[in-house]
Amino acid sequence: MAGLPSRSSQQNALGEPPYDSTDWQTVPPSTDLPGYSVFKNNIKKPEVDDRDYRYIKLENDLEVLLIHDPSSDKSAASLDVEIGHLHDPNDLPGLAHFCEHLSFMGTEQFPKENAYSEFITSNGGSTNAFTSAHNTNYYFNVSSKNLSGALTRFAGFFHSPLFSESCTSRELNAVDSENKKNRQNDIWRLHQLNKSLSKPEHPWAKFGTGNRESLTAASRKKAHPELLPPGAAESLTISQVPSPSPSEMDNNGDGDGDGGAAGRETRRRLVEWWETHYSAERMKLVVLGTESLDDLTSMVVKEFSAVKNRGVGRTPLMLDDPRGAEHKGIIVYTKTVMDFRALEISWSCEWQPPNYLTKPASILGHLLGHEGPGSIHAYLKNKGWISYLSAGIHGGGRGFSFFKITTVLTKDGMDHTTEIMLAIYRYLEYLKASPLPTYIHEENKSIAESRFRFAEKRSPDKYVSFLSERLSGPYPRDLVLCAEQIVWEWDESAVRNMLNSFTVEKSLVMLMAKDGLPEGAWIKEKWYGVEYWSKPIPASLVEKAKSLEDFHGMYIPKPNEFIPKNFDVEKSTVLTQPSKKPSKLRTTELSTVWHKKDDQFWIPRARIIIHLLNPICNATPRHSLLSRMFVELVKDALTEFTYDAELAGMKYSIVCDGASVVVVSEGYNDKLSVLVEHVLQRVKNITIAQDRVTVIAEQIQQEIENFYLTQPYVLSNYYADHFLQEVGWTPRQKLAELQYVSLGDIQHHAQEVLARSHITTLIHGNVNSEEALRIADCVENILGSRPITAAEKLFPRSLNLPAACNYVWEDVVPNKDELNSSLTYYVEVGDLIDAPLRATLLLFNQMIREPAFNQLRTKEQLGYVVSSGCWFLHGSIGWHVTVQSERKPSYLERRVESFLDLFRETLTAMPEAEFERQRDAYALKRVERLKNMGEEASRFWAHIESGYEDFLRREMDAEHIRLLAKEDIKLFFNTYIHPDSPTRRKLSIHFTSQSQPPAKFSVSASEALLQVLKQEGVPVKEDQYRQLSAAEPPLDSVIEFWTKHLENHASRSTILSRIPEISAQHPVAGITDESSLPEGVVRINDIATFKAHLTASKAPSPIIS
């Protein structure tokens, strides 16, 4: 692995290695299959990878990586198209994203709009897609025996999609809803602002998500040029219009499904664009299955040879610098939604994938993003100015990249932004003037090789999606698995060339904060309304940044002592069937020690979980806050020491979890015990400084305040969970205590927590039982705790809803600018340890998930966020639906209950054979094999921490699922889920937006206005008028339009005065009654009082497996 690739690294104009025909073997066509070519060289793979790989090219130039994995329970496939939103037409921002959405809505072979997703989900799988700047990626997983059928349906996306007219309007709404979901999200807002700070003619400046306005504005102008004066099309935007309600749709949920004339024109443009860009030579496919490579080859050649090669060639590289002179050497001040402060310095730079042999950007990211002694991070953190720093490549497209150094500032840091910038710029100058030691390269090379050598399996769909993106990279085909990870050559000149380009004059600085920014001439970014202004970096700062006079406190990282050297794996016993549970090595008053020696993955890694239980951790909101501050101060103090360990493949975490403090360490077992001992020593003997307490308190306050500005569905889900916890404190309750916490309080609390506890330890991986006991002894000796009493060994419990209840709790969305509301609708089912009932819930959830999504999101278009699933609480189980929408929660609740009526009919009509197919597929899914050591450790720990020790739960679930009949599901549904049940237990959480959507002008109002216009002698082209009216535009836009259009008309005042009257007389269907709740709902007025009247679930006890 350490040697250089045998292949030439010379690249062509697309940044690819030259094509060599001698590397390929041609397979001629047969009576059954078209021809194809096979890449003859072996694909380099990780040492522990037992899968077989084959690279082929179809006659249409579509390249495919095939993966034979005989042990996988799931098959998967992903197709990546090297076309993303940078390739949108200039007048149709978001078209690539819209294409992704509409691709799922049926193909010529399978025209039913949810045929593909229905097949996948009913066969134990899932599917998704995403559109990025330079590519669109589609992927799925499915039960192994159904790969062939899934590929047949999947291939149609790329050779015969319908782009159904009936779905056009709804998918425009879906894209629009997705964009609205992101409008108050700073990540999306700042990303788009970064894109707008580039040459307007450069593709990077485009708006990638799209919305209904961006996707229809050009079409509306073309469709109705006679009716609309210049600029009027923009005034009739429909991006502000809520999604149409079901009452406005026909029986199929389509309504004016093609979106009217504008929608039809957008679809026409989409088809035209797709026929240009979705070409086989721009696609890369990865397929993973249990079938042999020959069988996989036959499947793929049969299904995907029909994809057209349109002769457009590979996507050209975008080599032009996206930033012009006016975007360099400037500081941009920008306001955020969330309360945080950050300073980012970035440079545009060359596209990095062609530099895969040397990876100069990775070396610079290592030097600039280091957190150990002497680093920029350590220097600025010790000054009290930052709490976080990262450095490396971010964003870009095929042909250009960006290198960014990002810092999160403290309050004090906001007052020292000039000093922070100078520290970063001067460290760059220091690196330019300093020799770069070769051990930096050797360490990075060693770490990368070890990471690849022992790379574990991941979920098949994520793996194929990851690889299909990589196949489009400029890498030799035999290195597609490792090219982005391995470092081969040390090329100091390449590092220095990049380093020398990082000058003050070429940088763009962005200072982000909710408040406290300097005042200037604020302007708004077009798509998200982000407020910002900019100015040149002061000449005085530029001059100081180039001087190393009085430079001190920062230096190049020292050699990393944590790099592992011993990779031996103890493989004394190879079992035909790996053990499904850990062993309990020791139980005392003080501790419980669990252990599992790895017996299936055979990698030199381990995970050590240490759980300190003490009820004082979470006894009150104050205690909970003190526990959190304690662990944050421990992490803060350990940063410099543990960073080298993290680079070398070892990491730790420490968190508060209810009444416990949990320390997790994992990585190469060679030096893992050293890390564990040091972390625990710091936990036991931490020295707390007041300046760090101030910084940590500030971070926690920001986090809590920002929590209430997050997405509404996050809030409704959180509060649903909070209502059902026996002991739990809201962020606001903890925040109320923050001002009363002192350094002494934290020290005293930490001593109390550590003085008495019950220590539960799980040691898992490449560690034998003797070493595990030594580690456990070391843990107990360092912490020096005394045992807590048996009565204090409390496991969390959930609260049970009473029978025949229908509760709702209502609140407003705290973010006044958030357009969306949310509903979390929860029904309690029963006891977690009731295995037959639990199995029935699991199968029911599998059966209802796709129909719920298809009805509530795809057909009714309630909102972008629609999810359903099981909730396993501390003792009880239930089922929930969550919807985020511009509609009111009370309306959403009624739509959920209407869907439940519909699903009862679906369930009754379901053929027995279909039920049995879904049941058997899900039973297999429930006992899927573990993919890696981390999954196994996490599963073990979940059962230990819960108190049930139910390690064979999944096997038990599968046994019960196989025994279920359709009548069992119907009885379950009618007893626990459907609103008609006399014993159903239901709780819903409503968060209502404070931002009211603009009043809409209904279709019936438009008809009434049309009669007024005729009476007053205003000439109107009625067909065009009705097509525009079908979108039900905002009332304000209608008034604005006719104000301009009737400027010289004698009846102007009369008509304008009638428009609001007509709107009130003809409201939009389904809007006026949204505020009413269904009958029988009981409102909750006080959370504490409500919870006090609920009973708690039974305390957990170990399950005898």
Question: What can you see in these coordinates?
Answer:
The chain is α+β, with helices and mostly antiparallel strands and 1105 residues long. It has six domains: 25-83 and 106-162 and 278-309, Metalloenzyme, LuxS/M16 peptidase-like (Cytochrome Bc1 Complex, Chain A, domain 1), CATH 3.30.830; 165-276, no CATH class; 325-545, Cytochrome Bc1 Complex, Chain A, domain 1 (2-Layer Sandwich); 583-792, Metalloenzyme, LuxS/M16 peptidase-like (Cytochrome Bc1 Complex, Chain A, domain 1, 2-Layer Sandwich); 799-996 and 1074-1096, Metalloenzyme, LuxS/M16 peptidase-like (Cytochrome Bc1 Complex, Chain A, domain 1), CATH 3.30.830; 1003-1065. It is 40% helix and 18% strand. It is built from 35 helices and 29 strands. The protein has an eight-stranded mixed beta sheet, with helices on both faces. β25 and β26 form a beta hairpin. α4 crosses α8 (260-277), α6 (212-223) crosses α8 (260-277) and α18 (621-647) crosses α20. The chain is globular, with a radius of gyration of 31 Å. Residues 6-10 and 226-255 have low confidence and may be disordered. Residues 1-36, 199-264 are annotated as: Disordered. Residues 266-445 form the Peptidase M16 C-terminal domain. Keywords: Hydrolase, Metal-binding, Metalloprotease, Protease, Zinc. Residues 843-941 form the Coenzyme PQQ synthesis protein F-like C-terminal lobe domain. Its cofactor is Zn(2+).
